Amino acid sequence: MDKYAEAGVDTAAGDRAVELMKAAVAKTHTAGVIGGVGGFAGLFDVSFLKEYERPLLATSTDGVGTKVAIAQAIDKHDTIGQDLVGMVVDDIIVVGAKPLFMTDYIACGKVVPERIADIVRGIAEACSATGTALVGGETAEHPGLLGPDDYDVAGAAVGVVEADQALGAERVRDGDVVVAMASSGLHSNGYSLVRHILSQHGIRYTDHSDDLGGMVGEVLLEPTRLYTAPLAAMLDERPGAIHALSHVTGGGIAANLARVLPQGAWTEVDRASWSPASVFRVLADWGGMALGDAEGTWNLGIGMFAIVAADAADWVVAESTRRGIPAWVAGSVSTSARDLTGFEQGAKGVDGGAVRLVGAYSG
């Protein structure tokens, strides 16, 4: 008997999982990918960087967090991959970089080939949608550390941007307009709070909720919206229109926006400019919270902010909407002196600008 298998590691199952995912991964491979699936390292030809004046590489790494617990609870694993790509690759576009390639890592208690293939297929499909080559990955079986049905996912990506086209706080100017781009739902943040609320009320993921409009778990697994392709197209079509981008992830609305404002700049985001989707309202109600109490945890309907030149605001709103992502003007940037009491000022080690939400939500 294979002693490794006796210890709980099934290498044959790992090989079967690779066979099931190979076709999906291969579809992401651009002309830059050297070799196929299964190498010790992925190779990517970057000869084209010679055409850049000063190429800057951008990199990002992330996971999906406790959202995977819901996927495991209802045995639905084909959307988690898109969540991973959204969390990783959409951080690359924030600096104006085009994604080049990505790798993934899946740790599990037991390799179930079909389950692993579902996860990777979701990653591959989202990579294709964002123009990112999936050049490698690893599935690690950890019996005794993780339960047979437990897993976690993580990934990393690399992109490139010309130095003089990089986006960031240094480009933001007084009078710039803050454009909000709609989320598809909770995306991949704040699920520990979601799970706590459901646990307190004895609500199971398999329960049907008229308020949510479906099975609780399925509604909560709505995949993260992908912003990279529409934003990359807009950056190409009208260079200089977009000055900075903010991906609304952990930390909520104000904190993430403050990270991409320069020191001395401030903005007030008008709550009346949008109406948070029912999933946020229902969860807040179940948790005995006002929507405002969740602004530092959930995105409440905004997945990305674009800070744009005032004369480009209408164009950005129209282009984003045309490309499938509803967008609207949510505020403007000012550098005038004022009392910033009550503003969120910087976050995650960044001494950025100041942001606060004002007014009441629409609807």
From TrEMBL:
HAMAP family named in the record: AIRS (MF_00741)
Chief localization: cytoplasm
A Pfam family hit: AIRS_C
Top EC class of this enzyme: ligase
Gene name, Swiss-Prot/TrEMBL: purM
Annotated NCBIfam families: purM
Record family assignment: Belongs to the AIR synthase family.
The keyword DNA-binding belongs to this UniProt entry's keyword annotation: no
GO function term, MF aspect, one: phosphoribosylformylglycinamidine cyclo-ligase activity
Cell compartment(s), UniProt: Cytoplasm
Cellular component aspect of the GO annotation: cytosol
Protein name: Phosphoribosylformylglycinamidine cyclo-ligase
Catalytic activity: 2-formamido-N(1)-(5-O-phospho-beta-D-ribosyl)acetamidine + ATP = 5-amino-1-(5-phospho-beta-D-ribosyl)imidazole + ADP + phosphate + H(+)
Residues covered by the PurM-like C-terminal domain: 173-335
Pathway(s): Purine metabolism; IMP biosynthesis via de novo pathway; 5-amino-1-(5-phospho-D-ribosyl)imidazole from N(2)-formyl-N(1)-(5-phospho-D-ribosyl)glycinamide: step 2/2
Keywords associated with the record: ATP-binding, Cytoplasm, Ligase, Nucleotide-binding, Purine biosynthesis
Domain PurM-like N-terminal: 57-161
EC number: 6.3.3.1
BP GO annotations: 'de novo' IMP biosynthetic process; adenine biosynthetic process
InterPro entries given in the database record: PurM-like_C_dom, PurM-like_C_sf, PurM-like_N, PurM-like_N_sf, PurM_cligase
Matches recorded under CDD domains: PurM
PANTHER family (alphabetical): TRIFUNCTIONAL PURINE BIOSYNTHETIC PROTEIN ADENOSINE-3, TRIFUNCTIONAL PURINE BIOSYNTHETIC PROTEIN ADENOSINE-3-RELATED
